[in-house]
Amino acid sequence: MTRSTTETRPSEARQRLLTTASKIFYAEGIHAVGVDRIIAEAKITRATFYRHFPGKEDLVLAYLNAADQGIRHQTEAAIAGGATPAESAKAVAASIAESIRTPGFRGCAFLNAVAEYPDPAHPVHQLVLAHRQWFLDTVTTLMAGINEAEPAPAARHFVMLRDGAMTAGCLFDPEIIAETFLRGINGLIDIRAAR
Predict the structure, then answer these.
(1) Is the keyword Transferase assigned to this protein (predicted)?
(2) For 85-144, how does the pLDDT look when each residue is reduced to its tens digit (9 = 90+)?
(3) What separation in angstroms does the CA of 187 have from each of 27, 127, 154, 176?
């Protein structure tokens, strides 16, 4: 039996809601934006909104899940482009630096979200932690590929450099921040590879 197009893809209205909410949540913050504004800007009815998302929290989780998938694809593509673990790790860093340089950059969607949802038991906070654990695990695997000795501290160092760059990139000149970030990551990787 063949599935219909509507069964395999999200509805156009759902996608429009998610795209609209993602843009506004990222630019202005999650708590600062109400459902009424998202409905108005997405040009859908309130009934359509609630048919796709039982509440705002469901939309927030969908926004972060979409951001997670985007970052996973970006990271996987960077890793696939590297011939060695060191080149792959540098490619991941280059993709992060490129995102810092994009117009409208407002930092890390996950760090921004967790600042608004500090309760560790909250589903948004849990999703942020899961995303960050995946990224740390991915970088740890790369660091182990460069040098098997103690990859975890090097991976945490990479992630901390990334977090600092993502924060500073929306406060200061993104070109300088991206360059500084890449210099730090390249040094970390080169030192690890030379051991």
Answers:
(1) no
(2) 999 999 999 999 999 999 999 999 999 999 999 999 999 999 999 999 999 999 999 999
(3) 32, 31, 11, 16
- Helix or strand or coil: residue 167? helix
Hey, which CATH number is domain 59-194, 1.10.357.10, 3.50.50.60, 3.40.50.720, 3.40.449.10?
1.10.357.10
Dist. CA 96–CA 77, nearest whole Å: 12
- Are 21 and 63 in contact by the 8 Å Cβ rule? The answer is yes
Give the integer Cα–Cα distance in Å for 179 and 189. 15
DSSP annotation of 102 reads: S
Whether the Cβ atoms of residue 94 and residue 184 lie closer than 8 Å to each other: no
- The interaxial angle of helices 123-146 and 109-116, nearest 10 deg, is 140
Domain extent listing, the chain: 1-54, 59-194
Domain 1-54 sits in CATH at 1.10.10.60
**CA-derived radius of gyration, the chain:** 19
26, 109 in Cβ contact below 8 A? yes
Among residues 184, 173, 26, the alpha carbon closest in space to that of 93 is found at 184
pTM: 0.91
Question: Helices 85-100 and 174-194: crossing angle, nearest 10°?
Answer: 170
